Amino acid sequence: QRMITSALKIKPNDAAALSNLGTAHLRNGQLEAARDCFQRALKLQPNSVNALSNLGTVLHQMGRFRDATTPLRRAYAADPKSVTVCNLLGACLLKTGDAQAAAALFDAATQAEPGDGDGWANLSVALNEMGEQARALECANKAVALRPRSAAALAALAAVLFEQGKVETAIETYREAVALPDPSAQTYCGFANALWTGGLNDDAADQLR
Question: What angle do CA 103, 106, 109 make, to 5 degrees?
Answer without folding.
Answer: 155
